[in-house]
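Cross-posting from the modeling subforum.

Setting up a comparison between two proteins and wanted a second pair of eyes on the formatting. Protein 1 (sequence, then structure tokens):
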Amino acid sequence: MEMNTLDKIRSRWYDLIHGTDTRRRVQLANQEVVGENKASGHMYFPILPKSMHAVLNYLQERGLDPATATFIDMGSGKGIALLVASSYPFRKIVGVEFGKELSEIARRNIAEYRGRRPKNIEVLCMDAAEYAFPEGPLVVYFFNPFAKPVMEKVLKNLAASLREEPRAVTVICDRLHDRELVEQHLNPEKREVFLGFSFYSKMKLQTTH
């Protein structure tokens, strides 16, 4: 995945305006991580703020009320999606990231962000496969964070949480193989595609596997 020149300028400009460090890519090779799934992790690559805004605006236009939902970025990296999400009145915003350096950078970006002070943001340095999804409506976001073995564990955990507490959930992902896994484990009723992202909602979950 490569940024064009204009996107590189926009990304650099975002950091200059907000006093953040989100643009620079980070390979996992020299990263200290939590858990045993380093081999399934992917390098840090930031989503463009304009794309994240477009995704969240799309959801609002289709009836999402952010005030009722928790936004969760699985594999949150330096926290760019969390910062953009903080422009919307989500009940809570959670980043799950197993890279220790990336987690610290994300927390620093949140603390030093220039502009509207982000609220209700939590960065958890942990293995996504061990994450327990919170109660209430959810928006769960995947920007190519990890390979199939971890993705399957995360989706199984989400499916179990939804069976325990049926509720409104929207899953967003941007990879073809991830889309197939979402179909397999969550059996969504509603599927939409926008700007290369797939949106899944109204899950029809079996009572047992």
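Protein 2 (same layout):
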Amino acid sequence: MIRTFVVLLCTAVVALAGFLVMIPITWILGDVRPMYAVAQAVVRFLLRLAGVKIEVGGADLKLLPRPCIYVANHVSNVDPPVLFGSLPRVAIMAKAAVFRIPVLGYALKLGGFIPVDRERRDSRRQALEAGMDRLRQGLSLLVFPEGTRSPDGALLPFRPGPFTMAIETQVPIVPITIIGTREVMPKGRSAIRPGRARIVIHQPVSTTGLNASGRSELMERVRGIIASALPADSVPAH
């Protein structure tokens, strides 16, 4: 619990100081990439401070096509920062409430992140349109298609949003399996425990030539790829 408090305190202080410095620099340069790089470095530092060691395996990230949609399973609140600190630049679809946090919310908007309000259907539609705009601009997306964290590690059913975006823009999907973050911070826990997060990057799945009729098959194919690297006791739910 003490470790969690220290990490949260450092996160608040470093984030506020960093963004207050980097936001004006972003205005001056007209380029968000320096702020993004600093944010990634800060996130990696804070994860190390929390005792979270990250191991990335599978496909070489440098050789993957861009833009693409990274699609990952979701078992912990640690998943987004772990992937944010490990992947090339992405825009992430995040809860709308996060964007209401002073300074942080503005920085997320500068970075092209996309707010989603689960209670509003029009918000989900707007998020899909914004996501496709980012892809057409050459920016990759990170999406958790389950829509929420799995309470027991089993893979939940996927929502169609990221697959619709991939087909509409004809960009590939890169499946990602996250292992170990549930032990670090399971759903329902607010304390962070030291541990190892393993990220398995799978080969991209092409959407070239696909249309809406192939969406369900695409979803099941990607879901199967992600499930294939999960521990044997994480049986996907149907």
